[in-house]
Every structure is written in C-alpha cells, then in structure tokens.
C-alpha cells in the first residue's frame, strides 16, 4: 500500500517523505537558462514551510483567507504548504499585469474576505498599489530552519484552498476545496496514471491553476516524486524547451492543454534537434483543461514518434475546478480514441475516475440519458468540491442537483457530453451554445471549420461567439495572430472575410456577420488560457474588443451585405 492510499491530507504525504527521504529532491525550478536551477529537498521544504507557518499563525492567520501572489518558482510552493501547516486558507492567483487583472483580484479579495497577501518583497509595492485594499503583507518566508516547529495538522474536513474561476458574468467564483477532497483527487489522478512512488515529472503549467497546482505540483508530493518545472512564459517563447526538459530529466509524466501540443506541432525542428530529443521514458502526458482535438493529437504523436514517443502516451482527460480537478481519463476496453458524432470527431476522455460516477442528464427535464445521447455531464464522488465561497445560491444550483428520479446529490458541470463504451466524450459548453433559429451550434465546430479551410489561420487563435443586442442572435468571429507573425499585417483581409463567410455558410449554414482581426492579447482569456467567449461578445458590443493597439482589421456587416458577400 502506498502512502497516498492511507493519507488523510497532502501533509501526511509530505511529512512521511520528509522523514524517510529528507535529502531527495521534491522540486527543481528552472529559470531563463537551463543551467539556472533551484532545488528544494523534501526535508528543506517541510522545514521552511513549517517555519513560515509559525510566522503566519503568530500573525493570526489560522482559519483566515490569504491571497498567494508569486512569480513562478519555489516561493509559491513553500507558501502554499506553509498555509496548510498554519491552517490558513490560501487563494492561489495570477499576478496582475494591468488594471483589468487588478479589478479581478479586487473582486476575489472582496468576495473571499482575504485579510493578507503572501508575495515576494520586490512585488509588495506594486501589488499594494494595484489592489488598494487594507491587507497585511508577508513577503519574507524564512530562508532556512534547523528544525520544524510543532504544529497541529489540519483535518480532512478543513479547507485546503479556494480556487477562483471565471463566472459566466465575469465575476469570479471561489471553489472551496477541503483537504479530504484534495487527497481523494490525488488518488484519482494516480488511478489513471498508474505512476509509482518516486516518479519524475516535468512541466510548465501555471502554479495557480487547478491543473498546474493539483496535477503537476502536488501529485509528485503525494507520491514522493520529483517535479522539474519552468515558467509558462518560457514554454510559450520556445515550446520545444518543454520537450527538451522531458528528454533531459527522463521524466515519466507531464501534462498540458491541447494548444501546447499544437504549438509543438507547429514548431520547427531540424534533424539535429530531433536526434537530441528522447521521449522514450515518458509514460503519460495528460492532455486536458480545454477540448482535445483528434487532429492535433494525431499530428503530435506522428511528429514525435521518431523521438521515442510511444502510441497511447498522450492521455486525454476531463476535469474542472468544481471537481477539484480530474473527472475522467485513461483508456477503455473498446480502445477507441475518438468517436464520430454528427460528423465531428470527439476525443475519448476515458471513464470516470476510481470511486466517482459520471451521468449524462437532460439539463431541462433532468432525465438520465442513455449511452450515446448528448446531455449535460453530471459528476459525483469524494472529490466534488464543498461549494462556492459566500455564494449559497450558485452552490445549491451547481453542487446539489438531483435527477428526475430523485438521485443525488450531483455536481452539474455545465458541459455537454455523452457516454460511449464507458468513456466520456465532451461536446462543448452549454453556456457557449450558439442558438440560431432553433439550431444548437457549438463554437468549437465553427472555429475548427475556419482553421481547417483557411491556411492563413494556421497559427491564429479563433473565437466564434453570438452577440445579442435586442434582436436575433448574430454570429461574430475574432481571429488573433501571434505578435511575432508580422506577415499577418500584409494579409488581404477583405478577401479573407469573404472566404471565412463562405466557409461557415457552406459547412454550417451560418451567416457570419462580423469579423475582427487582432494581434495576440486581444481575445479575453482566463488565467489558464481558455477563451472567454461571453467576454468577447460583451466587448464586441461595447467596442472595446477592437482595441486600436492590437487591431489589424474589422468588418461589421448587416445581414443583407453579409448574404451578398457569401453568395456564389
């Protein structure tokens, strides 16, 4: 039996490995250069976290909510575990880069009633100015400690942290994760990965995001492993650096969203680079956090097969913050990786994780649907979060659902999907459905058609959404080019508009009534990189989407001119 199997909290795992392998590396942070490395052992992690916890307890922060604002690195890890040892409730958050980000942070602070900020000294002044709130700041965790102070450990029913997500109105909602729910999800992840104690993992995912925090940073601690990581920006600047890290470290596990695989597929790789890349040690690459493309999956595996990447190493999975993290993943007995549903290839996200259940339910009648029928994905099990902080109405609607036959409670995901052969296939978001004349259209389908039919969009991000301003819904596309793609400025945009309209009319009988072309940074996204289509629509209507600093071209059309433009 592994330590994880009998642990009540993640601290049980850290305490065990700090005692049995104190000199073993827990984390290695890699800076701008590959040789710029900072290593934190299990013993040092526990000592420094406990010493910091003593400071937090003395400051009266036990049972209080505190904001964690750190650049990527070991300071965040120490602060997170310090909060656990102090029984404070950490709120991991992304560092603000502009006034919009500080507005969101301010909403989080207000909703959570946060009383303190943990950060680094060099950020204190800018964070204090940006938040403009009465908060205590703690910026100097002890550099070392000779021994760990005696601290009472939290129980499984106590809050481990609050994960804020973007609500449908743009107002963040705080998902409350208890220690018992966290450790249950760590067990669920291991049940899919089958990783052994002491495994080596590597990656770049944001430390404040659920996939990066729970799946990347905490899973190694749960299993006494070693996690090597870099900042997300370093991956974005050079995607193949991630794969080089996997090769150099002989990592057996990693995780990334679909867009990361797409960037690696697009990245240029000469014969010499390919020969130096050895991915034969990699046993699992979890792919989640956004819809997984069957095409991207195939292209990634085909491109890196010559580097030792084995078939089946990439494992699509599905999860969300309200489930702590993972809901489903792995392979099924039928061996299917994708399923054709109404002409669309849906990727298998595997069966529900161990000790949990998934049901597909009609969101209106709440009737449980049969295999092969599309409905809302409902989830139940020990990983389901405790609810939303200070939001009883939303908590009841999401976490206390019952089916028409009285089964419950279930957690409603807000995602559309179906079950086939025991595996879950995700079809899209209910709230992102585009409804035109009684037809339900998934934005992902329209976006995929544009990307596949128009070579000029090969490196572009595409967001299709509906806008409503008192009349019928209108479909608009926002197309975002990388800043480094200066050739984008020379495109024939009027022609590209005509082609885009023709594609959607031909493939989906959809009239595209507006197109905005932007440089990178124009499409609103969550902290994890997900496109926020509802914000795209709101900003399109108020004109702020067409930011002159990023705007390449914009076309707004009436229905007649749109029909004229796409007529044969």
UniProtKB/TrEMBL annotation:
SUPFAM superfamilies: Acetyl-CoA synthetase-like
Domain AMP-dependent synthetase/ligase: 15-389
Pfam families the UniProt entry points to: AMP-binding
Keyword Transit peptide: no
Membrane-traversing stretches: 66-88
PROSITE patterns linked to this entry: AMP_BINDING
Domain of life of the native organism: Bacteria
GO molecular function: adenylyltransferase activity; ligase activity
Annotated Gene Ontology cellular component terms: plasma membrane
Gene3D superfamilies for this protein: 3.30.300.30, N-terminal domain of ligase-like
Signal sequence interval, chain numbering: none
Biological processes per GO annotation: Actinobacterium-type cell wall biogenesis; fatty acid biosynthetic process
Record keywords: Ligase, Membrane, Transmembrane, Transmembrane helix
Protein family according to the UniProt entry: Belongs to the ATP-dependent AMP-binding enzyme family.
Protein name per the record: AMP-dependent synthetase/ligase domain-containing protein
Protein source organism: Pseudomonas putida
């Amino acid at each position: 039996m592994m330590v994880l199997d009998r642990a009540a909290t993640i601290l049980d795992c850290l305490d065990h490995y700090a005692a049995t392998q104190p000199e073993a590396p827990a984390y290695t942070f890699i800076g701008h250069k590959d040789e710029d490395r900072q290593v934190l052992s299990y013993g040092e992690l526990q000592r420094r976290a406990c010493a910091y916890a003593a400071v937090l307890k003395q400051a009266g922060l036990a049972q209080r909510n505190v904001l964690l604002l750190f650049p990527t690195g070991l300071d965040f890890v120490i602060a997170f575990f310090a909060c656990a040892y102090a029984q404070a409730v950490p709120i991991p958050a992304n560092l603000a880069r502009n006034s919009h980000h500080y507005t969101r942070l301010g909403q989080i602070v207000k909703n959570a009633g946060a009383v303190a900020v943990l950060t680094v000294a060099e950020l204190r002044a800018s964070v204090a100015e940006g938040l403009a709130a009465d908060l205590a700041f703690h910026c100097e965790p002890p550099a070392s400690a000779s021994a760990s102070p005696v601290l009472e450990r939290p129980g499984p029913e106590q809050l481990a942290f609050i994960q804020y997500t973007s609500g449908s109105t743009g107002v963040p909602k705080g998902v409350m994760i208890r220690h018992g729910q966290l450790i249950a999800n760590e067990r669920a992840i291991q049940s899919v990965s089958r990783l052994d104690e002491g495994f080596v993992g590597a990656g770049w995912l944001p430390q404040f995001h659920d996939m990066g925090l729970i799946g990347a940073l905490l899973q190694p601690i749960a299993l006494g492993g070693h996690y090597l990581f870099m900042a997300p920006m370093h991956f974005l600047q050079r995607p193949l650096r991630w794969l080089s890290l996997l090769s150099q470290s002989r990592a057996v596990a990693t995780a990334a969203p679909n867009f990361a695989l797409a960037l690696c597929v697009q990245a240029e790789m000469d014969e010499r680079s390919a020969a130096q890349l050895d991915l034969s040690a990699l046993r699992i690459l979890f792919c989640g956090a956004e819809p997984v493309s069957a095409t991207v999956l195939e292209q990634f595996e085909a491109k890196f097969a010559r580097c030792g990447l084995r078939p089946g190493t990439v494992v699509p999975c599905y999860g969300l913050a309200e489930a702590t993290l993972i809901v489903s993943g792995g392979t099924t007995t039928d061996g299917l990786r994708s399923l054709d549903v109404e002409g669309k290839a849906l990727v298998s996200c595997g069966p529900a994780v161990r000790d949990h259940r998934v049901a597909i339910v009609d969101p209106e009648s709440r009737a449980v649907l049969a295999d092969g029928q599309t409905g809302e994905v409902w989830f139940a099990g020990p990983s389901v979060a405790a609810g939303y902080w200070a939001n009883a109405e939303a908590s009841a609607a999401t976490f206390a659902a019952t089916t028409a036959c009285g089964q419950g409670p279930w957690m409603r995901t807000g995602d559309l999907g179906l079950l086939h052969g025991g595996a879950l296939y995700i079809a899209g978001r209910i709230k992102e459905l585009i409804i035109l004349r009684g037809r339900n259209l998934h934005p992902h389908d329209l976006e995929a058609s544009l990307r596949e039919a128009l070579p000029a969009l090969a490196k572009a991000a595409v967001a299709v959404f509906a806008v409503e301003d008192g009349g019928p819904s209108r479909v608009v596309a926002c197309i975002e080019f990388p800043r480094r793609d200066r050739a984008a400025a020379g495109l024939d945009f009027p022609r590209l508009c005509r082609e885009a309209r023709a594609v959607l009319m031909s493939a989906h009988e959809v009239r595209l009534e507006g197109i905005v072309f932007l440089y990178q940074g124009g499409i609103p996204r969550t902290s994890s990189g997900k496109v926020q289509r509802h914000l795209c629509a709101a900003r399109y209507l108020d004109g702020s989407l067409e930011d002159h600093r990023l705007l390449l071209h914009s076309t707004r059309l009436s229905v007649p001119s749109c029909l004229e433009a796409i007529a044969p």
